[in-house]
Amino acid sequence: MTSLFFLVFLFSSLLTRNVDADPNYIDALSKSLLFFQGQRSGPLPPDQQISWRGDLIGGYYTEGDNIKHNFPMAFTTTMLSWSTLEYGEQMGPELQNALVNIRWATDYLLKCATKTQGQLYIGVGDPSADHPCWERPEDMDTPRTVYSVSPSNPGSDVAAETAAALAAASMVFREVDSEYSLLLLATAKNVMQFAIQYRGIYSDTLPPAVRPFYLSYSGYKDELMWGAAWLLKATDDSNYENIIKSLGGGDQTDIFNWDNKYAGVYVLLSQRALLNNDNNFEQYKQEAESFICKILPNTPSSSTRYTPGGLIYNYKLPQSNLQHVTAITFLLTTYAKYMKATQHTFDCGNSVTVVPDALIKASKQQVDYILGENPAKMSYMVGYGPSFPMRIHHRGSSIPSQAHLSCSEGNQFLDTPNPNPNILTGAIVGGPDENDAYADNRKDHIHSEPTTYISAPFVGTLAYFASGGSA
């Protein structure tokens, strides 16, 4: 652990700028990492700062309910790890908190992958039984059904995403805890082999009561590419490059989220083309730039819509819209980083030349919008700024911590117009509607519910701006 504390000491000096800036990215970074404590499942450690929480067995609750969905949880873990790999040097003293948050997830994912040979556990809790209840995780009396995939009931998507998470995390811990890193990597290889050998969409194997939630709409090809790309980065084993090539090209896309990983694959692999001058990955660089041209406004191929206030808005998948914003913003920032390192520019057509600072400017606009520079003058990060959501769709936040209520007894706290008694600091809600309006209504889960996969990509982008990154 000596090297960890050395890194924290070494990089803390990098977080001396922008302390008094508006937005205060350092404060936002700290709060974004604190949020994950509020989502913890399992026995909580002595240094738990969100004191109104306490309960069960590992990992993170995905959103405001009491279900653990491994598909988005693994994506959350991958993005926390990618954020740390790219921007750990800019996190200063928050680096240690990032490592703690990643390990809380990977300890759980390791158990899911190794508890029973030939099975990968992929979720805990019955959504159909849980959703009608409004009760804290500490008081759950709903079935804690465990779901898994196996050779006879395959799930290439969730398995490959789990492999990606473990492989990415193995690089985070390589210099900090080499033994743990090796365990993560070995498990990632095994889970990836399972994903490749037994192919199928995980949601096809789930019972009807579970199937409506976190379906793999994009299929499993993107996760196979994503998992192989992360294992290639972690091992430099050409077998994973061959797997990627055998899958053929990916979709032309203008989204990136817990379900659709193609854009993430392109940006991750483009690093080899840009930084390593490896022509074998030129096509992924071109795909990454095609994706970016679809995101930026005023380009010939732009397919992204914006609210009147300038927020990226996915009209096709509007639920928890900020999940798209934080994930896309991370890719813009990271690709700009690669471009700056190689003095690279590219063309979006019609003589529209894209320079790195254009991506940083676009990213900063989205970050600043989330932190309060928007028509509503509201921060969509709980606990940040003078105005933020007070009635978020989150059971633990909305029920007083001293209350011990059964399933239906908690509805009084769902229905009340009063603010939540517990502040889930750092949580980012689904965000405003297409007209920049936000009702702050607890029952409007589409806009008021926080999720781990909204927050995870935002960590890296905040670290970039906290250290003085600018357009």
From TrEMBL:
Domain Glycoside hydrolase family intervals: 25-462
MF annotations from Gene Ontology: cellulase activity
Catalytic residues of the enzyme: H393
Gene Ontology biological process terms from the UniProt entry: cell wall organization; cellulose catabolic process
EC number, UniProt record: 3.2.1.4
Native organism taxonomy: Eukaryota, Viridiplantae, Streptophyta, Embryophyta, Tracheophyta
Keywords carried by this UniProt record: Carbohydrate metabolism, Cell wall biogenesis/degradation, Cellulose degradation, Glycosidase, Hydrolase, Polysaccharide degradation, Signal
Name listed for the protein in its UniProt record: Endoglucanase
The keyword Ribosomal protein is annotated on this UniProt entry: no
Keyword Cytoplasm: no
Signal peptide (from-to): 1-21
Domain of life from the UniProt record: Eukaryota
Catalytic activity as recorded in UniProt: Endohydrolysis of (1->4)-beta-D-glucosidic linkages in cellulose, lichenin and cereal beta-D-glucans
Assigned protein family: Belongs to the glycosyl hydrolase 9 (cellulase E) family.
